[in-house]
Amino acid sequence: MSRSPRYVRALLGLIFALTGVDGALSAQGAAQDHPGQYSAADIETGSRLYAGQCALCHGTNGETVAGVDLRRGQFRRAVSDEDIAAVIASGIPTAGMPGFRFQSSEVDGLVAFIRAGFDVSGTAVKVGHAGKGRAVFEGKGQCGTCHRVNGNGPRVAPDLSDIGAIRTPAALQRSLLDPTSAMLPINRPVRAVTRDGRTIRGRRLNEDTFTVQLIDEQEQLVSLNKADLRELEVAASSPMPSFAVTLTADEQADLLAYLLSMKGL
Ligand code: HEC
Ligand code: HEC
Questions:
Q1: Is residue 120 part of a domain?
Q2: In 10 A of CB 91, how many CB atoms?
Q3: CB within 6 Å of ligand 2 — which residues?
Q4: Radius of gyration of the chain (CA)
Q5: Where in the sequence is the domain holding 146, given as residue range(s)?
């Protein structure tokens, strides 16, 4: 890849991030409900039903059935919200879970409570279809122009191959809507100028008192001695664009499902 398109993209990203974030925040402020999230009332409904119908087997903290941790969103098979709804409706007779006859608002409530991490004052993010999310990732979202997945794609942005194993749905949604506020300090973009006048830009991977390691724009791992640098600048805003406006709520939910399904090879 040449240098300039990535620069242009990063710059666009910055602009998107700044404008998109404002939009997302004011929308959230205006109405409690975000299109990509369940309402507080849904979570409340689910909390009540869970205590009465599910806690007996799954425990108050959702972790008493082996291989399943409902509070943390760890399932054996389910990925999407529809998958969870289907399990609730049909049960898993061979494993001893009965099917339940709930109204759809009650099922929404249970899913919301699970997605909120059992926190009635928490955020319950909607999770759509991983298959559709993959199409958004590779198509409209252009995520693969920066991110690497299972050995494919550039290294300028963090490798997402196991992102579903290490991040919650709420954290992933925040990365999509407001990348700067979700950015881990270690991932911050750096610009270094050496004493002999070379400028190196990249994504920080590691830093200690004397050195800083980064992935530069040629995707090379670079280790710099701070003593050799004239300038070292660490940016506070993410080069990733916000997708709050450019993707619909459904596309965001599908992307989340795809990201959650990435659990390494
Ligand atoms: C009689 C015990 C029992 C009750 C009651 C019960 N479950 Fe389960 N549930 C299980 C067992 C056992 C499994 C694990 C099945 C397996 O091994 O895959 C399970 C699995 C699940 C899964 C995980 C599916 C996956 O892909 O891993 C979800 C989600 C779930 N239950 C939700 C609920 C909800 C919500 C309720 C209440 C409406 C509920 N369960 C009530 C026993 C129960
Ligand atoms: C212009 C390049 C670029 C594009 C396009 C881009 N990202 Fe990013 N993304 C980054 C960079 C750089 C970071 C690391 C800094 C940060 O966290 O904001 C990042 C961080 C992330 C993170 C957080 C990683 C973590 O460890 O928590 C997720 C999740 C993510 N991106 C998903 C996506 C998805 C999904 C898309 C497509 C809809 C996308 N990104 C598009 C550059 C990009």
A1: no
A2: 14
A3: 9-10, 13, 137, 141-143, 145-147, 157-158, 163, 167, 172, 175-176, 179, 182-184, 187, 203, 238-241, 243, 255, 259
A4: 21
A5: 4-34+127-183+240-260
**Domain C-terminal end among 115, 141, 172:** 115
Number of structural domains (the chain) is 3
Q: Does 148 share its domain with 26?
A: yes
The 10s digit of each residue's pLDDT in 28-69 is: 333 356 788 999 999 999 999 999 999 999 999 999 999 999
Residue 251's CB: how many other CB atoms inside 10 A? 22
CA dist., res. 238 & res. 256, Å (int):
19
Over residues 67-122, the pLDDT tens digits come to 999 998 889 999 999 999 999 999 999 999 999 999 999 999 999 999 999 999 98
Residue 84 CA: nearest ligand 1 atom is: 29
Q: What's the pTM value of the predicted model, to 2 decimals?
A: 0.82
